[in-house]
Amino acid sequence: MICDCNLSRSVPSNLERERKMRVREMRVRSWLVELAPFAAMVAVECLDVGLTTLSKAAMSKGMSHFVFVFYSNALASVILIPAAFFFTRKKRPPITLPLLCKFFLLSIAGITLMQNCVFTGVSYSSPTLASALGNLVPAFTFVLAVIFRMEKLELTSSRSQIKILGTLVSISGALIMTLYKGSAILSPPAQPQSDPSAMLTTTNNWIIGGLFIATACLSLSTNIIGQAAILKGYPSEIVLVSFYCLFGTIQCALVALIAERNTNAWKLSPDIELVSVVYSALFGSVVTFAVLAWCIRRKGPVFVAMFKPLSIAIAAFLGFIFLGETLYVGSIVGAAIIVTGFYGVIWAQSQEEKDEVTNIHKLHSSSSKTPLLDGHLDA
Known about the structure:
By secondary structure, this protein is mainly alpha-helical.
């Protein structure tokens, strides 16, 4: 009898232990699923900073950025097109002519205009400025999301007012970074002294580069909104990315043929030029395009844009270490203002999401109580 009692007690305890382990595994799995988009976007920002740093080093050796953009997208298309047809060979949504036209327009904003402008801006300025001005992407994306009714905006709400104020603050910070350099805070060792004419040329290049990068940010925001709209009706990220990259390659080829008449500019040296093209194709196009499309579909356009401030510190560190760049007061002040305004927007958005979740729970609880009340009334 004693053995039977012990056995009967051990069976429920074992079942309870297994149940707790399953609950714990489910919690860990759900936590990893929630964490995956965040980790993916952090990795994309790191890869993006590495791309701008490598491309700056390649263009400093005389490589044409038009040729660079064409080669990198051509190699990415060679990888993406077969992959798209292989992974979607069993279940592929139909590809129509209107859909191809949307992909074509998407590639104009996200590849042809954005990439050519950003690499032109980097060649005039630095990867640090490109990463700092990249914080305009959340502001532009928010404005476009409101215009296309992807984001709610109530002018009487304090949180909507914080969103608007944060957007304006981010834009003002970007203008400070572009138009004001200030004195040097941190300089690489043994930097030669520049004459006044060289400093004036550098300042003018800094402003020109900033304008090109700001244009690229607006193009990227337009691309993010466009992807979000297309993925609602066509839920296949890899097909979108492959055609989007293919059309971008064709467009960039035409731009490069017009801009670069010198045949020597099309030759790739087996050094930093080749490395930067391969890196851009694999990580800047294949990985980044796929991750962005995946995160846009699951989390929305504003979520993707919110990770841009992370690239400032990474770019400043890599630029100082590998390119011997100088950190200026304008860069630090402008970046701080941009981040402040941006996270004001993100805070307001997170509070609105919490309110929506609370309202949904209230609606479910009230609907579950209604049948009981109806039953009492019928009785």
